[in-house]
């Protein structure tokens, strides 16, 4: 059906190529951790830049497509555009723009755009887990500065990372990772990565 074709186009946009760092064959027990080595990261210290997950963007976009697509087909069958291989009495086709209802389409388009924005964010901002800290960094950020002399870039990077020694406890929720710090403050990292991989790494390095 035509609405499935539109969804596949949306899904392809989410899966379009983005920056990829070299893969890292990291395992905790028998579990393979879905991550790569960050720029400037050390394999000896096993710095892990968590691979992005499409789960939240795809679900958001799918809900948006489901909300918007019915409005494209609300017109008489004689006016609907059908794909060449369609055989039937009509229905499930695409209506001309003059039949579209902007008010009905708006919520779906908002969710589709939100899904694309979430995907772009998860591709360009990744969760970094080193042997001593955790935090969000840019995918292209060079973390070599953490091991060199003090500089503005080093201070900026270190301030964005939470040291393991400052964490009192951590909890993995369906929406993401919650850190309770010894200062009684909290930090939250949305689940734009594989939860099981992060859970395994933290259990190995924190507990």
- Helix content, binned percent: 25-40%
Q: If you compute it from the alpha carbons, what radius of gyration comes out, rounded to the nearest whole angstrom?
A: 22 Å
Percent range for β-strand residues: 15-25%
Ranges where pLDDT stays below 50 over 5 or more residues in a row are 17-21, 147-151
Oligomer description: single chain
Q: Round the mean pLDDT to the nearest integer and report it.
A: 80
Strand order of the largest sheet: 3-4-5-6-7
Count of separate DSSP helical elements: 5
Count the E strands: 10
SS-based structural class? alpha+beta
- Main beta sheet: 5 strands, antiparallel
Give the distance, in angstroms, between the N- and C-terminal Cα atoms: 51 Å
What is the molecular shape? Answer: elongated
Order of secondary-structure elements: HEEEEHHEEHEEEEH
Can you walk through the features of this model?
36% of the residues lie in helices and 21% in strands. The protein contains 5 helices and 10 strands; from the N terminus they run αββββααββαββββα. It has a 5-stranded antiparallel beta sheet with strand order 3-4-5-6-7. Helix 2 runs antiparallel to helix 3 (102-124). The protein is elongated, with a radius of gyration of 22 Å. The model is unreliable at 17-21 and 147-151 (pLDDT under 50).
């Amino acid at each position: 059906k035509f609405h499935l074709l539109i969804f596949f186009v949306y899904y392809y946009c989410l899966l379009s190529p983005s920056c990829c760092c070299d893969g890292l064959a990291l395992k905790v027990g028998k579990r393979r951790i879905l991550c790569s080595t960050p720029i400037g990261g050390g394999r000896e210290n096993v710095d892990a830049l968590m691979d992005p997950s499409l789960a939240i963007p795809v679900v958001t976009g799918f809900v948006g497509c489901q909300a918007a697509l019915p409005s494209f087909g609300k017109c008489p069958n004689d006016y609907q555009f059908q794909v060449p291989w369609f055989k039937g009495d009509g229905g499930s086709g695409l209506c001309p723009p003059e039949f579209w209802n902007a008010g009905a389409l708006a919520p779906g388009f908002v969710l589709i755009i939100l899904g694309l924005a979430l995907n772009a964010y998860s591709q360009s901002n990744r969760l970094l887990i080193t042997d001593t800290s955790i935090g969000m960094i840019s995918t292209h950020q060079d973390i070599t500065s953490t091991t060199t002399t003090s500089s503005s870039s080093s201070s900026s990077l270190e301030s964005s990372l939470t040291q393991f020694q400052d964490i009192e406890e951590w909890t993995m929720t369906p929406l993401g990772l919650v850190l309770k710090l010894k200062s009684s403050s909290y930090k939250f990292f949305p689940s734009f990565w594989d939860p099981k991989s992060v859970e395994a790494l933290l259990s190995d390095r924190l507990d």
